Amino acid sequence: MPTYSYCLVNVFAEDFFAGNQLAVFTNATGLDEATMQLLATQLNLSETTFVFPSQVASAKVKIFTPTNEMAFAGHPSLGTAVVIRDGRTEVSLELKAGIIPLRFNGDIATLTANPATHRAGPLASDLSQALGLPLSAFSEPAQFVDSGTEQLIVPLKTVDDVMACQPAAQFFRDVVLQGRNRDGTLVWAWQNGEIVARYFWTKHGQVMEDNGTGSACANLGAYLLKQGVQLPFAATMIQGHKVGRLAHLRLSITVDRQVEVGGRVVNIGRGEFDL
């Protein structure tokens, strides 16, 4: 009976019980995709990762939510990198979306996102129904952005508008997901030089809220870059107000137009499955 061990970490965590949770199976050799999905469903965290040897990077990593596999996700990449770090200052991960380089500064891990693609998003009139907001809440046009996972980036005028979002499941699926394999939507606004954000996605037909979404932070960086933000750029994106668990994501864009997402990773425990 083989035993598979995992580490539990919190990513984007400024406190011990904060940030977004992650389980990392440090040696997944021998597990097939069906079993990995079952383990991710059993743990029921937003994501679980499985580490394999790689010929082209420090490790090959597969990322699963409780319902499906993902090509790229931010907090699983950062958390997995810290778990396999082993004293190194840099590592790279082979994901379905490509090779992701990461570096470390103390307990802060930072990834460099892949270049993004952009598509026009829905009209504000449609988003108003999908997000439960008045037309007056919308500022710049929304965009679909994909730096590994396509998501809808929706700028709002005020933090009050962000907090007032109440997505309606049917309109959300029709307007945001549009029957395609995209992940969800990030709504955000500026407050005193920081970005306050919420991220919505669907699970079993219901709209859910995530509390620390690194892939969406990377897509927001690509959105700001396309909008002509002054470089170099750095800001903190804070998520999780409405779910009672804050996450602090460090977003930066270098002068050579590379989008970076970082955060503090806290090791909180470990466990094992006898399969």
From TrEMBL:
It comes from the Bacteria. Pfam families: PhzC-PhzF. GO terms for cellular component: cytoplasm. The active site is at residue 47. GO terms for molecular function: isomerase activity. Belongs to the PhzF family. This is Phenazine biosynthesis protein PhzC/PhzF.
